Amino acid sequence: MGRRRLSPARVAMLAVFGVLLALALVGPIAWGDRAAAVDLASVGEGASWAHPFGTDDLGRDMLARVLVATRLSLVLALLTAGLGCGLGLLLGLLPTVLGSHLGKLAGSAIGLLLALPGLLLALLVATIVGVGATGAVAGLAVAIAPAFARLTQTLAAQVAGSEYVAAARMTGISLPRLMIRHVLPNIAPALVLQVAMTIGGALLALSALSFLGLGVQEPQYDWGALLNAGLDRIYVTPAAALGPGIAIIVAGVAFNVTGDAFAGALAGEAIRPARWSRRRRPRSADAPSAVPAAGPSTAGSDALLQVEGLSVTFEGDGGTLTPVRDVSFSVRAGERVGIVGESGSGKSLTALAIADLVEPPGTVRAERLALHGRDPREMPERERRRLLVTSLAMVFQDPLSSLNPVLRIERQVGEAAEVHLGATRRQARMRAVEQLRELRIPAAARRMGQHPHELSGGMRQRVTIAMGLTTRPSLIVADEPTTALDVTVQRQVLRVLRRVNAEHGTAVVLISHDISVISAFCERVLVMYAGRVVEELPADRMRADAAHPYTRALLAATPTLDADLDRPLATIPGRQPALDAVPDGCPFAPRCPYASDRCRERLPLPETLGEGRRVACWHPQGSALPVQEQEMKR
Hints:
The chain contains 21 helices and twelve strands. It is an alpha/beta fold. The radius of gyration is 33 Å and the shape is elongated.
């Protein structure tokens, strides 16, 4: 990561910020006596060499008092911004933490507080607490909190819906850890910039309250109080008011510039050299991990995953939508199963339902949903999460969005081992290095200190696979893992999945809209359409035995090397029905050339055609009929 060059103006303001901090530390010590010394012979003097900013009505040196007031002014501004932003941060995270219903109430509360005038809210709290520094800090902190809460709520909602947060939830980490490790670091740049601007605003507001006599009271003084003292003689000795005024302006700008610099550094535009990152080599990178592999044993159990009557519904203002309807299938230990269909057929949502990642208002229902013979829905939360994370791994479509951009690879790959296997950080690192080496990632130990953006697309996808394999799961659900990759990298990723399947006996459920990828990788294929499984058959017999018109249409629309180049590529006319307009009969009937009145009126149920074959169709096509004769016209 390269260095970001700072402009001369920004460097100057950062230097000013450093000077302000130094003055806050040494000002009262170095100039405290001079600032408090009363000289009645010098009352109300103008600017001079002895008193550059003049004197006040007791003959005290205004420059010394401005320097001494730096500490109290900055401390009060930092305290006000810290309390206000801290309260706003907690309020802003509540909608994400509390879930759907309580989260809406928390969001409404934030909106109500934001609707109240900030000045009125500050004066109300200050009146209750009392006039003085304490009341001013409390009032301004309460006034600051709603705006910061709304910003936090918006940013957290954006991050909470990302795939890497879903992947982190899949590991079963606690909600506080999820917020601290995955949500807050990704919204930190915007929050840091807002905090810096808030400090500058708090400094100005506190000075205004002190100027009006509602803030710091005698014998204490800040820049606002000094500004009030010098304002009475501004036409006679303007230097007395000029000093604290300049201090307020310079400090406010310095805070904003410093916050911008820190926000840029957190966002990846680091102002430090690229080689600053601390990397430690493992003491024994080749040593095997001391953490035992976890996960239920599959011995004596043929069906690793059993799904019967799975449906996913969403309740909304327009009624109930059911994108997944009565899906049933099973996966044996060590088996490779493919799920294929057009976009919107319910493939990914089926996988999310199995992994318990469907967010409210979605509801998952199933007659049976068993992993290793155990139904996660009937288990306590802690045991359920442990079963899922140690037995099931999810690989999402986009590896860049599946990885947390602010965490190093070491922390992301080893997190599940720390949380669920009780591994120390060193043991988790050793296991992560071992896992990356198994997936043929070069220089695995060096990759531990890198961020996701420093890796290629294929390497990132292998890292996401490594994250899931850290706990040695018995099932991998790969949701279109090759869609965003070029052909060469696609082949590498599929080889990795096949190697894991062959060497560890890990079952793989591969989801894709590319039927050629499915047929080449899988042993058995499920074809989904409009949220239902319309056909199930062996992958090596797809072209010969495909019986459902939709399956045959997908095959006909897949280009082959021996295709007639003079003929246009076959397509499937029309589109899948909308979720709120799924017909009572066969959902493929409007696009099917063999549809009859029976197809439009009655929904066909899956029927067994032979070993490993099922089809839900009133007019299944004969296996002897060539696929080319079933091509769909434009």
